[in-house]
């Protein structure tokens, strides 16, 4: 009898050991996966919201082509049914090309209807938000130079036709649903824009933006900008640009439909000269279409 | 008493066996491929981890979704944020048992079947996957090819991009094991 009990006990211990063995496999697995590498967090779906650029850059060897429209006033004296609520009038069209020199450095070229402004931009993602929060937010630097080549009457010399913009974009994805961003900005217009007595050549501005995720493929976006300019503060025709929109992403495209008061797309124009008012019906439909082209070498099927 | 010592010896030898039966792989190669009308989708990782317990037949695989590398950065971003939601569900795992008992002391190719739970996108599916286990000079290699249907793991494909994305994805796994100490 004693022997039998001992045998049973041993059997039980053996079974127990075997059961433990399974968790040994599990714990070995856990130990192997313990130190996961942090990855950069993608904060926004696109390099541009309604008004502001985002911290996101176009990746290496990719080209982002953007067409951005601002239509005419929806309401007020220039809006209404006569102009199909502004659709008949195109106030600004912006063509943008953003090319990824590297994953973190872009060279961008843009052209606006307003002022026939041609702009060259360098964008550098200095710091990414990381999944382990070691870096809690992303920082991207933007430098722009713009020229209004055709406005020879207002701007007699070439250098008087130039504008510059410098920006630090700081953004954080607070949860999978909410991303917030602020961009302190410096604007310099060699000839004050608009050319009015007392207008400053240069001023600081602050932009604040948000994205709220609706589904995995769409979200709501908000933008606000405020130029710290005494001239603009004291001239009551100037208004702070506000924009809100709906963004949907379909594979290589991102579409945005938005409403803004400002006419201008380019930040140099938008921050310098926004004189449209919501209260006067001077708000408009705008849209952004962006398409990503990939110039990375094709990958052969056999590799996968 | 004699009997007990014999049993004890036998038991010890069993314990010894089970103790040696753990094999680990830290760089399992996992690739996914699917052919869709507009463009093929392909990605690869060599950061999969796996543990094989030859004594019990237990086999575990795990891979961090964000280690899959796509040739197109945008595809990789969409794969993570839109489809697999890797911020919420960072890993895909498989926990199963090898049905056969291949003789690991003899070199050769052993066709095996593994039954277990495949957890992708936080949705578990019981799967039986055929694989090959190769023993060559004490090194164990496992290879498997199987298909994962997006719908089985609640991976939603919106209608707008439907033609761009395949509904089932072919997965290839290769893992080479070394004895775990």
Overall SS class of chain B: alpha+beta
Greatest interface and its residue counts?
A: A-B, 44 and 55 residues
Strand order of the largest sheet of chain A: 1-2-3-4-5-6-7-8-9-10-11-12
Helix tally of chain B? 2
Summed over residues and divided by their number, the pLDDT of chain A gives a mean of 90
Summarize the biggest pleated sheet of chain A. Answer: 12 strands, antiparallel, barrel
The helix fraction of chain A, in percent, is 10-25%
Look at the structure and name the CATH superfamily of chain A.
monomeric porin ompg
From the spread of the alpha carbons, the general shape of chain B counts as elongated
- How many extended strands of chain A? 12
Beta-strand residue percentage of chain B = over 45%
DSSP strand tally of chain B: 8
- Output the CATH class name of chain B: Mainly Beta
Write down the secondary-structure element order of chain B. HEEEHEEEEE
Rg of chain A, Å, rounded: 27 Å
Count of folded domains of chain B: 1
CATH topology of chain A: Porin
Q: Radius of gyration of chain B over alpha carbons?
A: 20 Å
Instruction: Assign the structural class of chain A, choosing from mainly alpha, mainly beta, alpha/beta, alpha+beta, or little secondary structure.
Output: mainly beta
- For the record, give the distance between the C-alpha atoms at the N and C termini of chain B, rounded to a whole number: 34 Å
